[in-house]
Each structure stands twice: as structure tokens, then as C-alpha cells.
Specification:
globular; alpha+beta; six-stranded antiparallel sheet; 13 strands; four-stranded antiparallel sheet; 287 residues
């Protein structure tokens, strides 16, 4: 499967929509835009081709679902009724776009060296990032926007599953509502987990649909965490960071874990267990 074959596959899967396609050969991107108002999304083809080798049609299904939902939500003005608008925070990497396709600056706050906070209008099955023009339409200050978003993320239910690997405890937030990574902003939730930790607490947001919390109780736990975050990072639709963050009472510190014990890191039993854990998590329905 090459870039051009993937382009044609996506166009074939999306030809039922009232859209037009535009392929940028230099950037290897496919623009899918509505015919009625020109709004749309741009999909980077090369990363999908890379994921197709391991995920096959699953990654294509995810992209098609994402585009269908996004295009549907773009049929009208998302700010038609501001009374019931839900503002949510979303995490992105510092390298993520700072402007939309029209050159409008997104509203952004720095979080850590590895993460930035963007703000979004929740649209039910998707969301739209808020730019400065939208902020004016909402008649909100940036501080008000931030307070609303943090308040709303604290209201979310924090469902998680746990797994133990080589004596270390891993927590996986698995709400599947599109804001799993955003829960890293819920300090009360993180502090609650920290009270249960016997070792060093690490957190990770490899992509937008996962929050991993680890209670590292021995040296092997660091290798396990490094492998786990990289696995999620390479397979997520919107990757954020493959690095873990040390956490202590509201303070984050990015850390880089060196795999010193290569024998333990390559232990087939550990790797098999981690891969099973990741697949079990990612086979759940996503927003």
C-alpha cells in the first residue's frame, strides 16, 4: 500500500459524501471539503500508510469515521446557539498547528515542555478547536474560556482499568469520550491516584484517546512504561508525546527513560502482556 493507493481507497470510501477532494502531492495530504460551504478536513496520507502495515482496515475505518463525523458537523454554524455550548480542553504536542487552514490563531496555553492545551467546542461525536475569532464570537475572555474548560473536565467521570506488570501498577483511563488525555488536567483525580501509589507516579498522554498512570515500584517498571507509551504513541490517530511525565501534587516533570536493562526490556512475556493490554484498550469503541 503506497500513498496514492491509500488516497484512492479513502476517496472511494468517502464518495457517498457531498464533498470534493484535493490531493497535495508535495505534502501528501488529501483535503476533503464540503461542496456547500467549503469547510472540511485535511488528512495526512503517509502516517496512515505506515499504520496500515500493522492495523490494516482498522486504521482506514477510523479515518473514514473521523472524516464523516467532521464533515457532518461542518454543515452549519457551531455557534448558532451559544447557551448550551460545552467548552473542553484538549491536549496537543507543541509541534501541532498553531493556526487553522484560514490562518486564524488557535487559543493555546502552555502545559509542559511536551504538551500544550487547546480549547474546543464539543459537538457530540467530535469537537472543533477554538480560534481567536471564535473566542470573540463566544464573547468570552481567554481566562473565562480556561476556567470553563477546566471546570467541565473535572465533571467527567474517570473510569479506568488497572493492570500489573512485573510488580508495577498501571492505570488506563478508558472512558472513550474523546477526552481521555484531557483528564491529565484534573489535579484532584491525579492526586487521588497518587495516594494509592507506593512508588514513583508517572503519567503519559501518548495520544488524545489515552491517559496512562503508572505506580513505578521497581526499575523494570520504567522500561515497561517506556515501551507502553511508545506503543500507544505510534498507533494513535493524534499522537501527543512518547515521553512520560513525573507527577507530584500538581507538578509535572518530563522524563526520558533509558532502557538500561535490555534483557528485561526484551522479555517476551512482558512484551506479549503489554501488547495484549494495548490491543484490549484500543479495540474499545472510540468517540
Amino acid at each position: 500500500m503506497n500513498v496514492f493507493q491509500m488516497r484512492d481507497k479513502l476517496k472511494d470510501r468517502l464518495n457517498h459524501l457531498d464533498v470534493k477532494f484535493s490531493f497535495n502531492r508535495e505534502d501528501e495530504t488529501l483535503r476533503i471539503s464540503r461542496i456547500d460551504n467549503g469547510k472540511g478536513v485535511t488528512v495526512k496520507i503517509n502516517p496512515i500508510v505506515a499504520k496500515y502495515k500493522s492495523q490494516k482496515e482498522k486504521i482506514v475505518d477510523e479515518i473514514v469515521y473521523y472524516v464523516e463525523e467532521a464533515v457532518e458537523q461542518m454543515k452549519g454554524d457551531v455557534l448558532e446557539n451559544t447557551d448550551n455550548i460545552q467548552i473542553m480542553p484538549v491536549l496537543r504536542s507543541p509541534s501541532f498547528d498553531k493556526k487553522d487552514k484560514n490562518g486564524n490563531l488557535f487559543v493555546i496555553d502552555e502545559h509542559t515542555a511536551e504538551t500544550n492545551i487547546y480549547y474546543a467546542v464539543d459537538l457530540g461525536k467530535s469537537y472543533r478547536l477554538i480560534d481567536e475569532a471564535m473566542l470573540e464570537e463566544l464573547k468570552l475572555t481567554k481566562q473565562q474560556l480556561k476556567e470553563m474548560a477546566l471546570f467541565n473536565v473535572r465533571k467527567l467521570e474517570n473510569k479506568y482499568t488497572t493492570d500489573e506488570v512485573k510488580g508495577n501498577i498501571f492505570y488506563f483511563v478508558n472512558s472513550n469520550d474523546g477526552y481521555d488525555a484531557s483528564r491529565i488536567l484534573n489535579t484532584s483525580f491525579l492526586n487521588e491516584i497518587q495516594t494509592q501509589c507506593e512508588g514513583e507516579m508517572l503519567v503519559a498522554v501518548p495520544h488524545q484517546d489515552v491517559l496512562i498512570i503508572a505506580d513505578i515500584r521497581n526499575k523494570t517498571g520504567y522500561d515497561v512504561m517506556a515501551h507502553l507509551t511508545m506503543e500507544f504513541f505510534t498507533k494513535g490517530l493524534v499522537p501527543i508525546t512518547s515521553l512520560s511525565l513525573g507527577y507530584d501534587k500538581g507538578h509535572f516533570e518530563p522524563i526520558f527513560i533509558l532502557g538500561k536493562n535490555n534483557k528485561q526490556k526484551r522479555d517476551p512475556n512482558v512484551i506479549q502482556r503489554l501488547e495484549a493490554t494495548r490491543k484490549q484498550y484500543e479495540n474499545k469503541d472510540k468517540k
